[in-house]
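Sequence and structure are no longer studied apart. As an example, we show below a sequence and the tokens encoding its fold:
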Amino acid sequence: MPRIPYVDQSICTGCELCEQICPEVFRMNDDGFSEVYNSHGASENKIQDAIDSCPVQCISWIDE
């Protein structure tokens, strides 16, 4: 089953690291928190790099 990245904005600190690593998938919203805008915009490996780099671990995979 395919999976997509998900950002729990309730714990996101807005550090922008995920956007820096994988701008094809993540962006900062108007409230200053990360959001997924293109869940298939990069390889799973690149998305996983962003997930692994999140200092508060607010990004995870969910089943599509």
